[in-house]
Amino acid sequence: MGGDGCSRTLSEVQDGSCAEYREWEQKKKAAYDIKLAVTMENHIYEIYEKPDNFLDLENATYKLAMEMKPHLSPRHFNAFKMLFVQNKSEEEVARYLGFKTNEKKRSAGYKQIKNLKKIFQEKAKQIIKEKDIL
Question: Helix 110-131 vs helix 90-97: angle between axes, to the nearest 10 degrees?
Answer without folding.
Answer: 100
